[in-house]
């Protein structure tokens, strides 16, 4: 299965959420990999805490694999085994029964690029090879209408990838600006559906393969907010309801949503993986956050969540 | 004489075994040329040979370079309807003088690369075998990827590989010495899914060497895939019923494929005999298969609540 992570705006929590979902999937026994296609700012190395790769690798990352034709490609860009390479001790103990957790990092000096036939061919080959090896390949795309997005839409329309499940997660914050922006990225002009149809996808099929993920959501009923005065809680609840209506109006409502991740103090402070240790032993992160990641990981793999209407 | 080769091995992206005519469609790299198929002792299909022109640097371990011009032979094969392999092979032939000939010259010598100048052949073999996975000599790796990817993208496949496993690369170098009496070989498992084989032998057919190396690559891949399935099934940690769910693809798709040297004879057989005593591939395989079967038997016994009867399950 291929999973594409997109968002209209930057800083939505696309990378952090994706990394955590991939991590939870690996813990549950799936072989997974994470491809950093955010050519402008590849941050996955830092989230997985791989020393020296916090802003991508110097050479051989995703960007150079796709774009440097003089590299004698053997179909294999640079890969990093997170279980053995992370500087975080709790990650280095790969739990028995867990699956592979592999990072394909970006390049330090990547940058965006334009349409390129050879890059498309290589992208198809790469996704094909990784689909042979991994249960789930998550591809983190640049924010907004990027060429990376167009590239993978063209790649998944290629006959060589037909039959491989491809699912889209569109991340957005739960705010008045983010909801219409996320809708625009999917339904708007030159959005995912537009570009996808031009690349040869069937519109309904593609739309059924796109789900939204709300990030850093404040739950008015959560215990963290128990210190608020009743009037404040009532006001928050009203806001939440308003946002719900706004989302429904923009086709970003519950039916199109795969899940939501609560606002988490640890993630607010820094981009990282949340381990069970952070929740249970250290008690710094919230259980609800980990549950949300688990829930996303499970639903991503569950065909019934993605059945077309 | 030096012959260099590379083999790429993967699970075919198809959920079941392939009917014969479909296999022929998938492997038919060249229109007009036939795919050869065999049914015994295990089903096996091999594509026609293809040739790719190269004009490249041949680098020795010392860093010395000469220009190489000629062709690589490429082919693909499918074993048991499930394991797909592609190979790139060429013979390196030193020629005096440093001029490139017209292509007709090289087309009359298919599967050979002429090294213009004075190449360091042992050093070239070393460079080939010691390079890391992503840097392959003369574009052999790229040719293997191209052949394999083409077949994996074929519309006759349903894109559902029965097991998930990384493609493995086996690089080999064979030095042919006219006077050599017996075969010397060295097989090494390197990191990153890379394996190397160094061979030294008397006069031999290149096809026989290719067959041997593909057979080694096939069995190494099977063993690697089986061990990774066993590891993730958590035998002894999970309930047997749980482990069995994870072990099932191995039982359904891999276990029956182990048949070392099924189509080999002569020197290739003696290499396999050596491999069986050390590192003992079949011993490791048999032990792994026993673990899988014991686990299946135990799960069945727990379900039926009676002692395991292997016969009934695997008769
Ligand atoms: N559930 C959450 N609760 C609180 N903070 C969060 C949450 N999810 C993400 N964040 C924080 O939001 C910020 C942006 O996250 P992240 O880098 O994942 O976003 P992004 O969409 O990948 O951004 P970019 O477009 O720059 O790649 C980070 O500081 C991250 O820790
Ligand atoms: Mg990011």
TrEMBL record, chain A:
- A molecular-function term among this protein's GO annotations: DNA binding
Keyword vocabulary terms for this entry: ATP-binding, DNA-binding, Nucleotide-binding
SUPFAM superfamilies membership? P-loop containing nucleoside triphosphate hydrolases
Q: Does the record bear Nucleotide-binding in its keywords?
A: yes
| InterPro entries registered for this protein in UniProt | P-loop_NTPase (IPR027417), ParA/MinD_ATPase (IPR050625)
Highest taxon above the source species: Bacteria
- Gene3D superfamilies from the xrefs? P-loop containing nucleotide triphosphate hydrolases
- One of this protein's GO BP terms? negative regulation of cell division
Q: Name one GO cellular component term.
A: cytoplasmic side of plasma membrane
Q: Does the keyword Nucleotide-binding apply?
A: yes
What this protein is called in its record is: DNA-binding protein
**What lineage does UniProt assign to this protein's organism?**
Bacteria, Bacillati, Actinomycetota, Actinomycetes, Micromonosporales
From TrEMBL, chain B:
Q: Which InterPro entries match?
A: SCO2521-like
Q: Which domain of life is it from?
A: Bacteria
In its UniProt entry, what is this protein called? Uncharacterized protein
Which organism was this protein described from?
Answer: Actinoplanes cyaneus
Lineage runs: Bacteria, Bacillati, Actinomycetota, Actinomycetes, Micromonosporales
